Amino acid sequence: MTDFVVRPITEDELRPTFDLLVEALHDRRPSDERWAQADGAWALPGKFGAFAENRPVGIASGFATSIAVPGGAVLPAQAVDGVGVRADWTRRGVVTALMTAQLTDLADRGTTLACLHASEAVIYGRFGYGIATSGRTVRVNRPVQLREGVEAGGAVRLLDTDEARAALPALYERIGLHRPGMIARPETWWPMALSYRLSREGGYRVAVHTGPDGRDDAFAMFKSVDQATAAEPEHGPLLEVRDLHGASPEAIAALWRFLFSIDLVATVTSRFRPVDEPLGVLLTDPRRVRTTDVEDDLWLRLVDVAGALAARTYGDATPVVFEVDDRLLPANRGRYRVGPDGAERTDAEADLRLDADTLAMLYLGEWRASTLAQAGRITAATPEALQRADTLFATAERPWCGTYF
Ligand SMILES: CC(=O)SCCNC(=O)CCNC(=O)[C@H](O)C(C)(C)COP(=O)(O)OP(=O)(O)OC[C@H]1O[C@@H](n2cnc3c(N)ncnc32)[C@H](O)[C@@H]1OP(=O)(O)O
Q1: Residue 129 shares a structural domain with residue 170
Q2: Least confident segment among 2-11, 35-44, 387-396
Q3: Which pLDDT band holds residue 153 (cuts at 50, 70, 90)?
Q4: Residues 185, 273: one domain?
Q5: Is the Cβ atom of 80 under 6 angstroms away from ligand 1?
Q6: Which is the closest atom of ligand 1 to the Cα of 99?
Q7: Strand partners for 336
Q8: How confident is the model at residue 1 (pLDDT cuts 50, 70, 90)?
Q9: Looking at ligand 1, which residue's alpha carbon is closest to its atom 49?
Q10: Residue 273: which CATH number?
Q11: In the prediction, which pLDDT does 193 show?
């Protein structure tokens, strides 16, 4: 018997459900001042609550965005930005009911994809989400020297808070969704991201690079973290870089050049960088760059499998027929023929069988079908069908999201 109901939340339930979410994530409820700074970013559309005796016991929140897929198409998507269940209501099916309501609603409204960042990797596979991008943590020990020939043109300037608020949304939009996995940032994303980070407490500063053509083409946020200890009082600060984006590899390299040049810094770190970012090879000594972690980043869910498969491009190989199982959205079940000319439903015999979460892992090009088959996630009629799938789904660049939500 269900002793809770799931429904879209109402205006006066916004703050109680936000409080519930931050407590589930072991954060503190926002003060009135911080809630005001968020400036309506926790908005009504896309939020389902679970209620017992009219009090919230669970929340699944999302906002509408779009996501770039291989080949350059940008598809309608929902970014699921907050899922939490009150501690005294966990393991009673609350999140299952919320995920079912949210995904069914997205399917009814014709949204093609859903995506999220997961607090734990064991939660979302059962709802058809799969790891679709990875992020690398880099640690760079100064001093470093860039190789001759690395872009040195243009200029970098620091923005004050008001300038950053005014400039960054348009700059991100102009840089564009140039890698599969990148998402559009709606207006409501920015206040939540900037208000705290750019405050005195948040401590982040913003650098913008202007290219030789006089146009701004890259930006980064960074903050200094004290590393001095009693034993090492002169240990220089660590520079934590986040949200670094550029319109071209040259613009990104020019911004790294600036960040590596800041005086007194001992170490530069950044989390969730693209796994294939060529940072080490910019330097005369590539060993100065260490990869200290590689983590799952964006989890993807194909809400409309036929629409999603038809929208991306594929490599050159003989077509493969996939049989997809989808427990939560049964309309997606069936066989799909995927080839260099596109993808469509078919009645032909299946070459490969897989679940919705595994298809999501393949979709942006992060994983090879043959690797997933080795892990028992794909059943193949022949090994050769796996090789064809590897070629069809391969992408030139690793997918990357680069936006935290
Ligand atoms: C996108 C984001 O916001 S990510 C943030 C997710 N939120 C958090 O991590 C906050 C803290 N955790 C929570 O709020 C909750 O524990 C949630 C949301 C993770 C899970 O909610 P619940 O209502 O407990 O999940 P529900 O009861 O529907 O469980 C469904 C299944 O998943 C399993 N499951 C759920 N959470 C976990 C977990 N953290 N670890 C292992 N298994 C889990 C359950 O055991 C259950 O399995 P079963 O179907 O085999 O019985």
Answers
A1: no
A2: 35-44
A3: confident
A4: yes
A5: yes
A6: 28
A7: 322, 345
A8: low
A9: 93
A10: 3.40.630.30
A11: 85
43 ligand 1 Cβ < 6 A: no
Place of tokens 């993807």: 300
Type of residue numbered 335: R
Q: What is the mean pLDDT of residues 174-184?
A: 98
For the chain, give the percent of residues with pLDDT over 70. 100
pLDDT tens across 317-341, in order? Answer: 999 999 999 999 999 999 999 999 9
Is the domain of 208 the same as that of 184? yes
| Residues designated catalytic | 124, 405
How many Cα atoms are found within 13 Å in the side-chain-facing hemisphere of 345?
8
Domain encompassing residue 173: 136-296
Of the residues 91, 131, 297, which should be mutated to test ligand 1's pocket, given the most ligand atoms within 8 Å of the CB?
Answer: 91
Tell the residue number behind the tokens 């491009």, with chain if given: 313
Comparing 125-134, 150-159, 291-300, 305-314, the range with the smallest average pLDDT is 150-159
Whole-Å CA distances, 402 to 22, 45, 106, 171, 178: 23, 24, 23, 14, 11
Please give the distance, rounded to the nearest whole angstrom, from the Cα atom of residue 119 to the centre of ligand 1.
10
Question: Given 296, 328, 363, which residue is the final one in a domain?
Answer: 296
- The pLDDT assigned to 364 comes to 98
Nearest to 385 by CA among 323, 342, 311: 323
Q: Is 123 helix (H, G, I), strand (E, B) or coil?
A: coil
Distance from the CA of 223 to the center of ligand 1, in angstroms?
Answer: 33
Number of domain units in the chain: 2
Ligand 1 atom at minimal distance to the Cα of residue 86: 14
